[in-house]
Amino acid sequence: MNRRAFTTAAGVLLLFGHAAGQQPAEVRVLASNGVKAVIEELVPRGERAIGHPLSVTFNSSQALKQIIDKGEAFDVAIMTTEMIDGLIKEGKIVTGTRAGVARSGIGVGIRSGAPKPAIKTAESIKRTLLDARAITYAEDGASRVHIVEMLGRLGIAEQVGHKTILEQGSVRSAGRVAAGDADLIMTLISEILPIKGVELVGPLPSEFQSYVTLAAGVGAKARDPETARALIRFLTSPEVVPTLKAKGMERP
Fold this sequence. Notes:
By secondary structure, the chain is an alpha/beta fold. Helices cover 43% and strands 23% of the residues. α2 packs across α10 (225-235).
């Protein structure tokens, strides 16, 4: 290569290298499965709002907590309020950045096209659960404690326990229903609606209904805390309320 050609090639490489260096850094988000459908819908608008691309990892709040405990870097976490509060106490979420994002009630889902069982009253959901061949819910899901409490109050914990399939995360649990391994799933309504092959029957009876609230916070080691805060402001803005409602969620 002659000197002139070398100089030209070097200039091109320098130009591209400079341009690449100006690309905005990704904002890494750890998000609960409870807001998966919402966040997936909002990613394009969120990226425009903060001027940075988003990299989102979805899992149960408990599984995300394990990721954080291992020391993996993140900018924003969206998890159960209780989990976020615990991370603040541990110094892993910046104090004063917690903001409520959304909440969802617990519902019952079945395989798409299957006859819808009765679940509106305590007696009807008791009969439905006893008649089911198998049921499923997430072993590490935020709704599990409320489901177990309901089964205890109905007096059927032992009978149902023998035919319960526990899975890691609501996505895998819902997959059991879609595949026909279980007749129904109990989990957050926001986790049932987006799953292909699964259909929402409705919420738990009012006397057993509980809401799981999800909050966001900025990671203590966030690369760009101001951008992380900007993302949380977007997620808690009135602009996203229609998306929350469409995905089975509401403001806390």
